[in-house]
Amino acid sequence: MRYSKKINLSNYKKNFLDIFLRNSTKNIITYNEKKKDYRQVLSNIIQINQFIKEKNFEKKTLIIQFKDRSLTLIFYLAAIFSNVTICPLDPNLPISRLNKIKKSIKAFKVIKSFNLKDKLYSNTEELYLNDHNFLITFSSGTSGEPKGIVHSANNILGSSFSYSKLIKLNNKTRVLHCLPEFYMAGIVNTFISCIWTSSQIFIVETFSIKSIFKIWLNIKKFKINLVYLVPSIYSMISNFSPSDSKEIIKNNKIKFLSTSNNLYPNVRKTFFRKFKTKIRSCYGITEMGGPLTNETNGNLKSDSAGNLINGCKVKIKSIDDKKILFFKSIFMCKYLIISGKKIKIKLDNQGYFNTQDTGYTTNRQIFLTGREKDILKKGGELVYLKDIENILIKCNFVEEVAAIGIQDDLSDEKLNVYIVLDSKKNLEKRINKLINIVGREMYKTERPDKIILLKRMPKTSSGKIIKRQLLKIHGKNKIKEIVL
After folding, report:
1. Which of 40-49, 143-152, 270-279, 444-453 has the highest mean pLDDT?
2. pLDDT value at position 141?
3. Are 331 and 293 in the same domain?
4. One domain for residues 326 and 184
5. What's the number of CA atoms in the CB half-sphere (13 Å) around residue 165?
6. How many Å apart are CA 296 and CA 281, to the nearest integer?
7. Has residue 102 got a pLDDT over 80?
8. What is the separation, in whole angstroms, between the first and last Cα of the chain?
9. Are residues 366 and 394 in the same domain?
10. Taking Cα atoms as reference points, which of 151, 190, 158 lies closest to residue 174?
């Protein structure tokens, strides 16, 4: 598959600013019952821009950790038009991880609060319209170190614009923003892409098992017609939904899109039987600038990822008898930051990125069939099982450890960790220490669902652990199973 046409990124900032100037009185954001129009959001952008200049933050890197979801999103817009780089982090991130990231990216300051004034600012002349590296997002690295992914303003604006065209957003779109605002789907798919088309964005509580019924209440309350969720939540709302849900879908003409993990056929079919509408799958990679594909109509038979956005290419490469998807994108990140060092993203000799996912293409559609061994994908980012094993093996009483990902079409991909201790002494104390390490040193996408203590690992004659046999282990070899 080839680029559909050449894209010029040079005018994106100016064109993006024009949207705010043209739509001054139209509502753009609704959060906690409070509405903001384009004029008010532009005023917030100008206020933050002035703050950055007054504090001499220009050309520096700032970490932001806001509990107010709308404030985080508005800071993205302000950073686009300010000569500053921001790194958004979950305010609940363990302090040890925060300090590690702060050191790695050489952050000048951590900002945890900011007061947006009601006063209207209108002078746009001081806004920064040149391209610059404005955003650092984080995922797990192969060495166990946090991996910063550095994005330029024009690349994210270009990716968002291209994606908005692929999924046909328009000024009548009313999107429910319930994805985490620290990851690409919450930044590009459900926010910046929507601004390009003057869509309205309704920011609600981040999705969770507890908020399933709130999702339906918000859909009805705000007359939502575009919903992004992950496969596990789609599975749950297929089983737990109000009696009038089918009528709400029909009246609002709702499009349902799925992001993050693979959308398995069983999830698609169950949802369709319940609501008589199809889920459309989206596929993306953070290093490539966010979303890469989206289905046009949805299907029930296969794990289709849909069509490519304009500005990307894909090819299939055989590695160890596996058909691996490789992508090339003009929206690709600028570089990575690992252990404080700038690292070039690894590409093949044609400039393609190895996604670690297996799949194939046919009739201009991309299909997913799985992923390479020992790699999970959660929230659009790669999680390496080796990293998790490396953290736990540091315990002086852990002799061996093996992490395994388990695909489940009714929930998020599960992660089990199998451990052999050096003895059974002080077993409960050791279990508590393991649980503390998981909570303290692992981010939420890395944390296992279960820790299973074993007497011994199944191994080959050469001493290599046979991971595929771990799922078949029964009671005799198990010491204890801890559900986290």
Report:
1. 40-49
2. 45
3. yes
4. yes
5. 10
6. 9
7. yes
8. 43
9. no
10. 190
Of the three residues 344, 372, 400, the one that is the final residue of a domain is 372
| Of 109, 32, 22, 18, the residue nearest 69 (C-alpha) | 32
Amino acid at 239: N
- HSE (CB half, 13 Å, CA atoms) of 281? 25
Tens digit of each residue's pLDDT (9 = 90 or more) over 321-366: 778 999 999 999 999 999 899 999 999 999 999 998 888 998 788 9
CATH number, residue 438:
3.30.300.30
Helix (H, G, I), strand (E, B) or coil at 456: coil
Residues recorded for the chain: 484
Number of domains in the chain: 2
The answer to whether the beta carbons of residues 286 and 276 sit under 8 Å apart is no
Residues 347, 448 share a domain:
no
How do residues 231-259 score in pLDDT, each as one tens digit? Answer: 878 877 887 788 899 999 999 999 999 98
Same domain membership, residue 363 and residue 390: no
Among the candidates 351, 372, 393, a domain finishes at 372
Q: What confidence tens digit (pLDDT) does each residue in 62-91 have?
A: 999 999 999 999 999 999 999 999 999 999
Q: Give the Cα separation of 478 and 456 in Å (integer).
A: 9
2 belongs to a structural domain: no
Looking at residue 346, its amino acid is K
If asked whether residues 330 and 423 sit together in one domain, one would say: no
Residue 403 lies in a domain: yes
Rounded-to-integer distance, Cα 340 and Cα 350, Å: 28
Are 172 and 347 spatial neighbours (Cβ–Cβ below 8 Å)? no
What's the pLDDT tens digit per position in 276-324? 999 999 999 999 999 999 998 888 877 789 999 999 999 999 987 778 9
Helices then strands, counting H and E runs in the chain, come out as: 13, 26
Residue 228 structural domain: 12-372
Rounded CA separation 422/13 (Å)? 59
Please give the model's pTM, rounded to 2 decimal places: 0.80
Q: Is the domain of 128 the same as that of 170?
A: yes
